[in-house]
## 1
Amino acid sequence: MKMPDSQSEYSPNTQAELAQFVTDNAANVQRSLQPIGGGTARRDVNADNACQVRLDGINRVIDFPARDMTITVEAGIRVADLNRILAAENQRLPIDIPQAEQATLGGVIATNWSGSRRFGCGTMRDYVIGISAIDASGQRFSAGGRVVKNVAGYDLCKLLVGSRGTLAIVSQVTLKLRPIPEETRIVAFGFNSTEQLDAALARLVTSATRPVAIDVSNEPAMQLLNIRRTIEKATMPTLLFVGFEGTQHEVDWQVEAVTSELRPFECPWSQTLSKAESEGCWGSLKEFSIRSASSTTIKAAIPPSRTCELVRLATQAGMAVQAHAGNGIVIGHLPERVSTADQAVAAIKPLGDLVRSCGGHLSVLRAPNEWPALDVVADSWAGSLAWTQRLKRQLDPHNLLNPGVMAFGPA
């Protein structure tokens, strides 16, 4: 029986209130709980008596010893608010997070979301050094600490990052931080074919430079990125973005070096963006995953050496594609003309076949609720991540936290 609306959502204001609510739920009604931060990566729990637990009210700054370059905050803090607090001390969390005004830190941790800077800066697992959470029985526990060199509970911190709220509800986090770089630049290269691009990417593997981002976009993606006034050749079939950060001297040298390194690879055009243009481009690349009007978005994890092959297949299917080519992460929006589940499955299946053939994974980030057939493209997770099901049974034996959600999808 469906719960009344008055009991289908709960919004605690403190960690203690949250712990008490989860304790009461486990001891009495045992509703399925769906932790929600900003809702930017929300996928509804498939349960009649599910209760949404909104965490954006738990958003205090607990401790910010700026000289130590760490901060302890509650998990419901908005990412944009966190960024403003850090920027006042010339510091940052170098993770590219779309919809920062809405997204919460806890949601980012639950999904282990990362963007273009993942290649040089890493993922959330590299920045979480302490964590507090509440398990399905309401028991509060902590791991790690408030200093970078404290590695107690290290594995538990890593375990909860990317667990999608299925093992415990993250309530408080300690992060290590980085300084805001003096200079940031993006060099854009245009290619007429993915074969040319593939050769250039292979050269970047042995580059004397140290990019923080290596992104690839096809022409449909450029239409979504909305940076045509910045990029002179935005209509080329494939664009490669190579990003650098550091001191002025470091960045200037790397921009010159990478341009020289890629010149022999039939690259007919390149453009070095100014600092202001680069910052605008970073923002557009960051928002790509949510910018499309398409009803269906996929995300794949594949060996980096096969990225161009996947981009080529996705382009043939009419998708707008962004690839974090240095890491093998590919995001694709199906064209708007895809209006049925059967059409979506037909478009995605060749990509899924390639991804599975090389040991990768593919998942559906967004799709209409009436298209459950799309889940077939993600069925490779069941075998390779069977250990997560055993872990789930141990930590949440009554299956109360996000039932039906698969933890540790492509990050």
Note: Residues 1-6 have pLDDT under 50 and may be disordered.
## 2
Amino acid sequence: MRKFIVKRLLLSVVILFCVTFIIYLIMRCLPGSFVESRAMQLATAPGAKPYEEWLAQLNAMYGLDKPIVIGYFGWLKDFFSGNFGDSWKYTVPVLEKFNDTVWLSFIMGAISFVLELVIAVPLGIIAATRQYSRADYAISVFALIGISLPTFFFATLLKLLFSVRLGWFDLVGLVSRNYQLMTPFQQFWDKAYHLVLPIITLTIVSIGSLMRYVRTNMLEVLNADYIRTARAKGLSEKKVIYHHAFRNTLIPLVTIIGGSLPGLFSGALITEQLFAIPGIGYASYYAMVIGDIPFSMFYMTFLAILTLLGNLISDILYAVVDPRVRIA
């Protein structure tokens, strides 16, 4: 196991190197950037230098006048030395802005993920154990609706119903207008109140695929020979399903759990945009729009590291949930 982990970590370093270079290449080749818009803004001032001079000066200031390969290794050196630079859009250190926004997205993602597991896994098991029944058809229809609904459409429906028609929630924002007049306890519940609709949106649009995934794998396990043998021995149906069948269904679920790690920190870009929630997805969107290379590079590199770590955790958990798995 130790040898396997070391090999995977070394391979992950090589993959991370390639991924970050591709990300840097894409960021450098974007048609528009902060530097160009800033140079144009400075050139319009009375008595200012021409646009071309401002552009050359800003490119030299941010190291964008160097070739891509040299610029990448310069960025890589700064990254591993802990110098992530300042965000061009937010004019604060990248790490400071990231830390201010990522935890809100993490809370939303974690709550949504827990609700997704709590709802999807039991419903998937019920659909599989009662195949072709009314419960199976109802659960399958619910899952397909969740899969088919685009995030922006479902979020708009929720806002129309609960914000416009019923007036239960605010349309956008994280806090109410009188937030500063509230006590700390009231401020906490005010933020939680504003996160209800975004969390419902994230849960519903994600729950369908997991529900279908659990149902499909559960059906495959229930048709296995050892399940028929367990039933022939006279074991109760409850023990057959939850002790024998469900334990083997956990193996493919481990892949989803491990792969969900980046999603907890990456933020929900569309949902945060629609509800104006100032999370990491909201911040990264506007950073990428203006070509904020320092913030965008840090954000996407962070996600790449989490993705590689999630895959490694999935492989290790295989041996935990199934003793038959042996890593040579």
Note: DSSP finds 15 helices and no strands in the chain.
